[in-house]
């Protein structure tokens, strides 16, 4: 079942282009610049009346939710709040008519997320579930749903489910936008670019040897910092979580601009800092953070857009991603981070598919 791969995690990282194609299949109508979903169970009129969205989830799915906030506010023009499911269910979340709660869960069985769903329903709010496992409890108890179509994910560290969560949120955000102010042309432009993403991920997977060398160089570090901005801030969190989970190296993710408010004190020659710095609106600002780290002798590993040689002489190691739209860049930037965490853990001889103390689905509080 593993085919040419040695572990499920590696197999699942490499399945991402195909998983995304499966999530897009049958849902994208290019001529109309529109997206079709089978199971939302809401009329277009009800969708247009949504005045606020609250997304709730745990772990990696919560990182996808943070990206979803950015996408839905940008394309769908609806305000979004994101909450950890465990926090949501024990607060008094103020929910009103016109609110939609979205729960995101690969397994569809996470106890905290399931209880958050039940709490929202108790308050009379409609719940949309984004799950991977067909017929899971969250899928069954949601009022409507979007299946991730990532295929079975066996490795405890979530990879292809994450990218398909982001794809589903992109599709949903475009769908919301098209029911409101987004033009036909803009819908078409976004969907065409989205259909090119699987091929671009393939190009990143082909950089496996470069990523292995970087893993060799840094696998003895005791701490890592991951920094990104905008839609790539949650990717920094996700990169850090992957490293913690499977390599047991302490890592933290931050919005790059927050570095100067504290974490900068940690930087010395032993601290690798991973910068997610594709060419986007905030690129120059991230570059100035790179200079700040180098001035303190930190080691910089940068995820850059193709052909970016502007900062090359300031960084210690670089990984390249193909150009895409800023909003879709997490689908690309996360891949080298998954691979780097993977190879560091393998070099350390660890069981990446079953890391210590972790279960694939957390069905206890
Ligand atoms: O099945 P879920 O998406 O609800 O799981 C949520 C988290 O437990 C999960 O994402 C966890 O953080 C993963 N091990 C991350 O790799």
TrEMBL record:
GO biological process assignments: carbohydrate metabolic process; fructose 6-phosphate metabolic process; protein N-linked glycosylation; UDP-N-acetylglucosamine metabolic process
Keyword DNA repair among UniProt keywords: no
Localisation per UniProt entry: Cytoplasm
Keyword set includes Transmembrane helix: no
Catalytic activity: D-fructose 6-phosphate + L-glutamine = D-glucosamine 6-phosphate + L-glutamate
GO molecular function: carbohydrate derivative binding; glutamine-fructose-6-phosphate transaminase (isomerizing) activity
Chief site of localization: cytoplasm
Active site residues according to the UniProt entry: 360
EC number(s) from the headed UniProt entry: 2.6.1.16
Sorted UniProt keywords: Aminotransferase, Cytoplasm, Glutamine amidotransferase, Repeat, Transferase
One cellular component (GO) term of this entry: cytosol
Residue ranges of every copy of the SIS domain listed in the record: 43-182, 214-355
Function: Catalyzes the first step in hexosamine metabolism, converting fructose-6P into glucosamine-6P using glutamine as a nitrogen source.
Oligomer status and interactors: Homodimer.
Protein name listed in UniProt: Glutamine--fructose-6-phosphate aminotransferase [isomerizing]
UniProt source species: Thermospira aquatica
Gene name linked to the record: glmS
Part of the whole protein covered: 251 to 615 of 615
